[in-house]
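Possible regression after last week's pipeline update?

I re-ran a chain I had predicted before the update to compare outputs. Posting the input and the new output here so someone can diff against the archived version. Not blocking, just want to make sure nothing changed silently.
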Amino acid sequence: MSGEPGLSSLSHEPPIDLVALRQERLARCLAEMKRTGVDVLLLSRDSNATFAAGSRRLWYAGSRPFGPTCIVVRKTGAVHLMTVHEDGIPPEIPRENLYGFAWGTSTFMASVMAVPGVDEAQRIGVDAMTPAYARLLKDALPQVEWVNGEELMIRARSEKSPAELACIRGAMAITHSAINDVLAAIEPGVSEAALRSLFVRRAAEYGVTIPAFEASFLVSPREAPTAPSFPIRRSGAPRALREGDVVNLDAGIMLAGYEGSVACSTVCTNSGHSVAPLASLAQRWRDTMDSMLEVCLPGRPITELRQAYRKSGEPLPAMLIAHGVGLGMEPPIVPGISHPEDTDTTPLERHDVLALQAYVFEDGVGGYLGREIVRLTPEGPEVLRPLDLKPLSQ
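New output (post-update):
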């Protein structure tokens, strides 16, 4: 252990009432259905189903048919789930509201049509459909007006409640604790794969089995590649760490469905190797982040985040510089160099939770990667910390 308080600080926080959280989320979903006149929601995306139903998955691995894994009926307020077991199903969803997997289209459609309220619906929202799925539904329900259920769910999910913020911060606490153990294990000769395995093991010891994304603990390249490549390493054959390597750490986990991630950088050394070059990179990273934080205000267009990044003097990286955080990645999405034109004038919203990240590079030294999670308020951005933990050493 690294000596950081880690997950122990969870005991100093008020407990999260998950039952109340599920009830409040479903109420927001039903209210948005009422506002838009939607009778039934057919949800296929896992984050939307988690928001409406509160069901818990043990792992992400496994096959399942592409179809509505969650059905919400406005008239009854009932939630129906596609599952073959009761593990992770909230107790307020009765067993008769569960329907099983089916690879046969006729069997699957029969399960959907058997849900009370579906056959009499006039307006149904769907968050995702394959062409075959769309044809089956339209043939079975020719009277229905089909609408964009994803837009409805984005509106329902946009503002984060205090309980949701607590889940995000709790996920950050677990990630933070596991990464601190990885930081303590960094030394010359250790492989990148061993660091990733250590993170996965420590997260599992905290009872978390679902990563937000595949964690990476990678040595930064020291020399910039020829243009147009960007000097950031996101994959590749595992390497052994060497004295003086800059290591980029990037990991996240899901707690009650909510994502908490951490990205930071450090120097691999056990012989007093100078960290002054990394300190210089860290200051450039801090200046870039502060430039973006200045425009993190409700109503400001997301294009200003890209403009602020460039204003800092750093080139846009080959990765997202900002994205929404909640039940996984959410809007808004702000890309780096993949979209050179600043054309998206979508405004930032009050109480959006964003992951801001920057990457700065110096030839001969390497690159510095870091991320901060911020909540937008009318008074300015609030940088979320993982409960009462101290910030990671940069």
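Follow-up from reviewer: compared with the archived run. The chain has two domains: 18-157, 162-383. Marking as no regression found.
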